[in-house]
User: What shape does this take?
Amino acid sequence: MLFTDRRADRVVLHNISWQQFENLLVDLGENRAARVAYDDGS
Assistant: This one.
């Protein structure tokens, strides 16, 4: 996982798998304030 772009309102994670994304959602929990999206680049 690579953190490259960072602003006060956005974090972009490059080169993460779908499984890593799902794990991130579990870690953040159901009551998270952030909106999270996955883009596979296709």
About this structure: Residues 7 and 13 are 12 Å apart (CA to CA).
